[in-house]
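Please predict the structure of the following assembly.
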Amino acid sequence: MKKRTDGQGAKTMRRILSLLAPQRAHLAAAVLAALANVGLSLATPVLIGRAIDHILGPGAVDFDGMLPVLAALVGAVLASALFGWLMTLCTNTVTYRAVRDLRRALFGKISTLPLAAIDGAARGDFMSRMTNDVDQVSNGLLQGFSQLFTGVVTILGTLIFMFSLDPFIALVVVVLTPLSLFVASFIAGRIHAMFTRQAEVQGRLTGFAAEMVASQKVVKAFGYEQRAEARFDEINKELYHYGVRAQFYSALTNPCTRFVNGVVYAAVGLTGALSVISGRLSVGGLSGFLSYANQYTKPFNEISGVVAEFQAALASAARVFRVLDEASEPPEDAQAKVIRDCRGMVELEHVDFSYRPDAPLIQDLNVRAAPGQHIALVGPTGCGKTTIINLLMRFYDVDSGLVRVDGSDVRGLTRDSLRGCYGMVLQDTWLFSGTVRENIAYGRPDAPEEEIVAAAKAAHAHSFIKRLPQGYDTPVAENGGNLSQGQRQLLCIARIMLTDPPMLILDEATSSIDTRTEVKIQRAFDEMMAGRTSFVVAHRLSTIRRADCILVMKAGRIVEKGTHEELLSQNGFYAQLYNSQFAPSEE
Amino acid sequence: MRRLTKYLRPYRLQCILGPAAKLIEAVFELIVPLVMARIIDVGIAAGDRGYVVRMSLVLVLLGFTGLCCALFCQYSAARASQGFGTTLRRELYHHINTLSHAEIDRIGSSSMVNRIVNDVNQLQTAVAMLIRLVIRAPFLVIGATVMAVGIDLKLSLIFLAAAPIIAFILYFIMSRCVPYYRTIQKKLDRISLVTSENLQGVRVIRAFSRQEAECRRFDAANEDHREVSMRVGRVNALLNPLTFVVVNLAIVAIIWAGGLRVQSGALTQGQIVALVNYMNQILLALVVVANLVVIFTRAAASAARVNEVLELAPSVTDRAGAAPAAGAAGTPRVEFDGVDFAYSSGENALSGVSFTAAPGETVGVIGGTGSGKSTLVSLIPRFYDVKSGSVRVNGVDVRDWPSAALRAQVGVVPQQAVLFSGTLRDNLKWGAPQADDAALWAALETAQAADFVKKLPGGLDASILQGGQNLSGGQRQRLTIARALAGRPDILILDDSASALDFATDAALRRALRRDVRGATVFLVSQRVNTVRGADKIVVLDDGAVAGVGTHEELFRSCEAYREICLSQLTGEEAERA
């Protein structure tokens, strides 16, 4: 078990390093600057010592000799500071770029993940990875760099000085100090587990808070506040549990290594003192040694502190990489064709599909839409109407069978060009946090103002937009909170009106719009869609009645097919559905 | 910051004992060189091997005691900082729960969540660092200064001169960085927002093949974040080099001035060495202080963001002495009396709305898109307060109800069918925590959802993904209706809740509602005449004003707006037949 986590840690580490690879130049500059910085700061005590050597006693102070040394000292100090500053700048650059790249990769993953993965993911947890976990990686890298570089260089520098003084005692130091690293790495294993848990619980907390805060209205409507708080508290307590441990264990490393180093210091004192007594070392030599031993162990303390911070970064990085490693949508065939001048012939042949292998949904579905036909999908909820749209748009791929547009298998077409053939309006409206204008122009950001207004007029959104505080420049609140559901739908329809697509998919697109407006919008759609293929899921008779072909679905199959009149005369399932609308509700 | 310190109060003990333990460790650390000096002066001088060994053991013992003190301090820091963070998160979330939608919209839900998690994290770190380092670093600085004064008063003036310069540097950098850190958190909000929008709108984005444009939008936010981080990094990067330079220049000054003092015989060489050493010790402590400063500036920015939320006053609060009302016989269940309402900005969304609804009555609300239908019903459970006029439930103004009791009376089925991750049973029990399975099934039955729930793997224990993504739109809607019914409310509000239902289900639902919720007052908000025409009373809204109240027949005859709606939906014959 431990072995495995170690292996994973190393793998995560390698991936972090590969993330830094593009910043090679800055990284190298940072190392050079660190070398210069530490070298110069190691030189300052030497220069200070030499300057003091010129102060011998009353009347014996050599100011002339001291001046150049002090000048050199000032120079060294300024240069060291400059290099220190440069080093930080370089490590900042490396870290912030790496972090930016990591966030970009994470975001880019959203656009390649299959829809099933996104539908099933907890959004808040994903967001926590995007913000909190990446922040943690950033902290780890920043600290790691600044302390690791200077630490390692300081250790090497003092080692050289010590060996030149007395190889034997130096050896004692060299053999004993890694003890502290051993202690640190022992603790690190524990920390890693805690940090992993902490990051997970934090993800859950974020997920919960995000879900609840976004649906605050429902929470209030049901007086769910207290129960929501109770659940929040539960997760929060768990976070506290792991938080205290992660914090404490990670804070263990520094005192523990300091203690080990204290023991080493005592050992050096002991062997050194015994050596002096037996005449192998001078008292001055011993004091020099002790001060170097002190200097030598300090960076170890710092490095062990970094180890803790780094464990947190590793745990968080692993969570980020887990998302990046999820399987993407199968890549597009290199020969995938771009569909041009779509005529609008759509065929589904023997299509089988289900979201979960254990619950078959669509079986042996056959649909053929000739160019220009208006197809209505009708059936009880949950019968698979929306699923057909998912398949047409290739949000999901069929399990078996074929979907063809203009005679070619959709899997041989580029996704973008296929989706570009359809204009789609869903019942779940989606607006983003831009202005009303930007939301309408979503499909054609470069559309001229007149066309945007024309589209809004066609969607009968113009009059309400005009009445908004800033008209077309009114910002849409997060989740469209400042608009009514019907208004949001009107904007989504205007969006489609502007793109003027060759085919149309409307999934309950007008469900929240009043019928007077709907009739007018329908007219605009009719004009736009004359001679173009369209698929409509609707419950309103007016929409369905005009369709060239009504597909009546039941439990994933098409049970009836024909025009309104044909189906009524068949007196089957459709007729039953139709009549039920007029069944007197007063009974 | 001061506002937040009260959350530290329960950890007073840790906040005092932790640093105290750290202080002991620091003192022990100072004793170590003294013991080493004894080894050299006494042990080596006398050639006493036994003494050397004993003193070495004392060193180890000192180290061990120091270790224990340090561990105690670290544990205190962990307890206090995490406890503080946990309390703060709870308080924040609790406070957000008291806010109305208007306030949440102002800050945005992704920013709210970032404040609960990310900003509190920053504050937590600051508290931990405070306990670990706050005593030690100043102790070393002051101690070294005192020692320096003891050696030579005149030379120690250099120490005192260096102090304000360093203080100025710290102040300068802090003041420059705080606004940057605030911007960084704001940029982080933006990153969250774009991410959340992309997860939510994935279908639309793919339908328009706008993935690349979305990536660019994200890149812009991401790049912004990096740039501000870099900018603040550039300022922060100055901190250590500047203090290093100031302290070392002070050392140069000490050597030069010290040379003069030694020349005149006022000081010895050894004392100069000691002064230089103290200065170096101060430098080391200052490096720690500098790190603290960085952490604190970041925390100050986060504290401001957390406080911003805590200071938001909820616009809807319970009045003192609010009590639930049972309603005497003959009082209308719900009464709108000259109600005007406007969202925070803008013109009236409702004006002069008056009507009553008796127990057991079904009230249809119909009107054009944006005419104020949803606004009207959201005043009943007091999601917002009226501008003038009043809304009364059981004869008592809703503002005089305790809001929990009021909302317990009202079952709301919102327009957007929102379900929460968890089991189906969890979702149904939202409005009725005590309900048993039989009651839940009855609610499902009425909501026309029992059939499909029976087919779900696990039945009531079937798991629901976030937002109910694993169900169809119509299934989600029926579950939200069942959720509202399970609480057996006196007032049931269906806000266009059948829009995703097919006719058959819609009709069956209405029949079942008539049958099963007899005593309740039901509000049916709809676009469809068919949905409302069986209602006892229909309220026709036109641009925020009541265009007519009455039954279908009355309104069809007398209300122009209503007739228009009818004619747009029904054939003339169908309208007549009604």
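Chain B has two domains: 2-311, 334-577. The two ends of chain B are 67 Å apart (CA to CA).
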